[in-house]
Amino acid sequence: QVQLVESGGGLVQAGGSLRLSCAASKIIFSTNTMGWFRQAPGKQREWLATITSGGTTNYADSVKGRFTISRDNAKSTVYLQMNSLKPEDTAVYYCNAVTIFRVPIGPWGQGTQVTVSS
Predict the structure, then answer these.
(1) Each residue's pLDDT expressed in tens, for the chain with a length of 118 residues
(2) CB 70 within 8 A of CB 51
(3) Which three-class secondary structure state does DSSP give residue 89?
(4) Of 6, 28, 4, 3, which is closest to residue 91 (Cα–Cα)?
(5) Is there a contact between 78 and 51 (Cβ–Cβ < 8 Å)?
(6) What is the enclosing helix (H) or strand (E) of 112?
(7) Could you tell me which of 13, 18, 114 has the C-alpha nearest to residue 67?
(8) Cβ(4)–Cβ(106) under 8 Å?
(9) For a tag on the chain, would you pick the N or C end, based on fewer CB atoms within 10 A?
(10) How far is the C-alpha of 66 from the C-alpha of 75, rounded, in Å?
(11) 10 Å Cβ neighbour count for 103?
């Protein structure tokens, strides 16, 4: 069964940090590139970062230098370290396996809410 479970969100002040986790079922995690996305109220889901099975990373300009994606292949878990958070980072954050064109592969999980207060 394909499953993605995000956690680690919460309420943080601007300038603060959070670390998100995404536990994925092995069938979707194993050799796939994994990505983080977010969706703010009234906006479309936005791609943030990807990491290949070999550890190569890519970031959207909006988070480059502030967010770091990593993965633990033994635990089938992908992480998103978020530093210097801004109120505009407020959104529900999701992970998923993606194609080389950053198209999500699996079903979406429930996401984890991140709220950044000013």
Answers:
(1) 889 999 999 999 999 999 999 999 988 888 799 999 999 999 999 999 999 999 999 999 999 999 999 999 999 999 999 999 999 999 999 999 999 899 999 899 999 999 999 9
(2) yes
(3) helix
(4) 6
(5) yes
(6) strand 112-117
(7) 18
(8) yes
(9) N
(10) 24
(11) 11
DSSP string computed for 2-51 = --EEEE--EEEETT--EEEEEEE-HHHHTTSEEEEEEE-TTS--EEEEEE
Q: Which residues contact 32 (CB under 8 A, 6 or more apart)?
A: 53, 97, 98, 105
Q: Which helix (H) or strand (E) holds 67?
A: strand 67-72
Take residue 76 and report the two structure tokens written for it: 């089938």
